[in-house]
């Protein structure tokens, strides 16, 4: 189900709680909403659709990915500065990102996986995980 984008800074500032198998429906809603906004968005966190759960969705090489309870377990390379925008906020903000990251997460079967990402995909994931901690981008 496509959901409305949340722009409430008070809600977006709250840290997310862990997702459970019961929250798979929110992952699907997040993916539907991301696909509906694909012309202007490459990633979303569940709080952006009004759900305070640790779920992100993003595009990785033209494939949509949903992660439950993602966390970055390793950073690689140098930090760099980039201006990022967000559907939940107007304008862009200068942030620092790492070139490469290793992420532990659960898939839709709640199997724990670890995967390394680099470049723009790593930037997207870092942005969405910031949302899970209530960091306003």
What is the gist of this entry?
This protein has a single domain, classed as Alpha-Beta Complex (Peptide Deformylase). Helix content is 23%, strand content 42%.
Structure characterization notes:
- By secondary structure, the protein is of the alpha+beta class.
- It has a single domain, classed as Peptide Deformylase.
- Helices cover 23% and strands 42% of the residues.
- The chain has three helices and five strands.
- Strands 1-2-3-4-5 form a five-stranded antiparallel beta sheet.
- A hairpin with a 2-residue loop joins strand 3 and strand 4.
- The longest helix is centred in the last third of the chain and has 14 residues.
- The radius of gyration is 14 Å and the shape is globular.
- The two termini are 25 Å apart.
- The relative contact order is 0.21.
- The model has no long low-confidence stretch (mean pLDDT 96).
Poorly predicted ranges (pLDDT <50, ≥5 residues)? none
Helix content: 10-25%
Q: Compute the average pLDDT.
A: 96
Radius of gyration over all CA atoms, rounded: 14 Å
Tally the beta strands: 5
User: What is the general shape?
Assistant: globular
For the biggest β-sheet, the strand order reads 1-2-3-4-5
What name goes with the CATH superfamily? Peptide deformylase
What is the makeup of the main sheet? 5 strands, antiparallel
Count of alpha and pi helical runs:
3
CA-CA gap between termini: 25 Å
Give the SSE string: HHEEEEEH
CATH architecture: Alpha-Beta Complex
Instruction: Classify the secondary structure makeup into a structural class.
Output: alpha+beta
Percentage of β-strand residues? 35-45%
Supply the CATH class.
Alpha Beta
Number of domains: 1
């Amino acid at each position: 189900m496509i959901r409305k984008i949340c722009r409430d800074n008070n809600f977006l500032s709250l840290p997310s709680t862990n997702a459970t198998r019961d929250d798979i429906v929110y992952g699907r809603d997040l993916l539907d909403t991301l696909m509906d906004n694909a012309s202007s968005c490459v990633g979303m966190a569940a709080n952006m659709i009004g759900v305070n759960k640790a779920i992100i969705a993003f595009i990785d090489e033209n494939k949509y990915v949903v992660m439950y309870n993602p966390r970055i377990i390793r950073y690689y390379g140098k930090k760099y500065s980039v201006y990022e925008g967000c559907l939940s906020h107007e304008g862009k903000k200068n942030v620092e990102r790492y070139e490469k990251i290793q992420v532990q997460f659960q898939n839709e079967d709640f199997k724990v996986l670890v995967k390394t990402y680099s470049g723009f995909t790593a930037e997207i994931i870092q942005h969405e995980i910031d949302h899970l901690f209530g960091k306003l981008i």
